[in-house]
Amino acid sequence: MSTTAPWHPDILDGYESRTLHLGTDPDGEGEVEATLVRRPVGADEQVSGAVLYVHGFCDYFFQRDMADFYAARGYAFYALDLRKCGRSRRPGQTAHYVSDLAFYDAELDRALEIVHAETGQRVLVSAHSTGGLVVALWSHRRHLAALEAGQRWDSHVSGLVLNSPWFDLQGSAMLRTVGTQVVRAMAKAKPLDELKLPAGDAYGTSLHVSGSGEWDYDLRFKPVESFPVTYGWLNAVRRGHARLHRGLDVGVPSLVLRSDATKFARRYSPDVDVVDMVLDVAHIARWSGCLGNAVTALPVPGARHDVFLSKQPARDAAYAAVDRWLHQWVRPGEAQAELSELSGLSGLSGRTSSTTSNSSS
């Protein structure tokens, strides 16, 4: 059973964190832990909701701007560094490695329990890239479990905000067919072996202050050239993709944000500042409807892979889209009756509704 240590000052100045002890790693790399981070609520701040943020691959939580955005709207802000990621990685552990994305359910469940207990609020779950896939699958499983128990998942979680979620494997169709079968076979034989991928620092250089970016973060946790990709981890992701493509019901409304263009590049040039150079945005658009319930899918012109780390105009547009969506779907007070009524008509009956848009306005 997982246990939780007390809050203590975090590596991010002014924030606090606590360790979630998760026991023995199912993948055989010792004891595993996750780290829950929170932005302390100011004396003059009112709390009417809560947010739990989950990072992607080669990432961790450092985004103060995001936390301040939600705090200004009455949300207590928390973030989770998953096992073997960021603050949570321990000596001898393979960065970000899991052989099954469902292993993350343990820390997600525990984090949700803590956030709900501390705030007394339903929790908006926000996630980026691989984290978006992880959270969608977790929400689907927990929604179905709640239904079986005669409960409502939306009494715990108010919605999902997915920022460029990884919904399919980028690259040629051959990689998604024959390539996936090769990955599956290698994952059985040598799961910790690394794929031989071309080196590239374009994305990291576009973000970090040491390159051409405006963001200062710990390069030990988010290196410019990324961490190696292992066969076992990629196989877990591909299994997650396959499950998503069969259709989920996450049980709550979701907002999916992405760039309006993709351009893959290994080395930095200014034109990659306004595109997703990591994922194929057409895949995100194609598979967003598989989330079930009410899905709002919005392209953000000029956005990077992480839309909230984009250049200022695109970043402002992304936050404005979140504002509009919150007001429509998840705002506290009078909107809760509307949300509960809609959830009763769609998610709990097994039917789904989908809202899509071709612009961010």
List keywords for this structure.
361 residues; alpha/beta; Rossmann fold; eleven-stranded mixed sheet; globular; disordered C terminus
Please outline the helices and strands.
Blueprint: E1 3-4, E2 8-9, E3 16-24, E4 31-38, E5 49-54, H1 64-71, E6 75-81, H2 105-119, E7 123-128, H3 130-148, E8 157-163, H4 173-176, H5 178-189, H6 202-207, H7 231-245, E9 254-259, H8 281-287, E10 294-300, H9 312-330, H10 335-345, E11 353-356
Parallel strand pairs: 5-6, 5-7, 7-8, 8-9, 9-10, 10-11
Antiparallel strand pairs: 1-3, 2-3, 3-4, 4-6
Helix pairs in contact: 3-7, 5-7, 9-10
Keywords: Hydrolase
Region (Disordered): 341-361
InterPro entries: AB_hydrolase_fold, Hydrolase_4, MAG_DAG_Lipase
Question: What do these coordinates show?
Answer:
This protein has 361 residues and is α/β, with parallel strands linked by helices. The protein has one domain: 3-Layer(aba) Sandwich (Rossmann fold). Helices cover 32% and strands 18% of the residues. The protein contains ten helices and eleven strands. It has helices at 64-71, 105-119, 130-148, 173-176, 178-189, 202-207, 231-245, 281-287, 312-330, 335-345; strands spanning 3-4, 8-9, 16-24, 31-38, 49-54, 75-81, 123-128, 157-163, 254-259, 294-300, 353-356. Strands 1, 2, 3, 4, 5, 6, 7, 8, 9, 10 and 11 form an eleven-stranded mixed sheet that branches. β9 (254-259), α8 and β10 (294-300) form a beta-alpha-beta unit. The protein is globular, with a radius of gyration of 19 Å. The termini are far apart.
Low-confidence stretches: 332-361
User: Hey, roughly how much beta strand do the residues contain?
Assistant: 15-25%
Class from helix and strand fractions = alpha/beta
Oligomer: single chain
CATH homologous superfamily - what is it?
Answer: Alpha/Beta hydrolase fold, catalytic domain
- What gross morphology would you assign? globular
Give average pLDDT, whole number: 91
Instruction: Give the termini distance in whole angstroms.
Output: 46 Å
Largest sheet: 11 strands, mixed
Q: In which range does the helix fraction lie?
A: 25-40%
What CATH architecture label applies?
3-Layer(aba) Sandwich
CATH topology: Rossmann fold
Number of strands: 11
GO molecular function: hydrolase activity
Keywords: Hydrolase
Pfam families: Hydrolase_4
Protein name: Alpha-beta hydrolase superfamily lysophospholipase
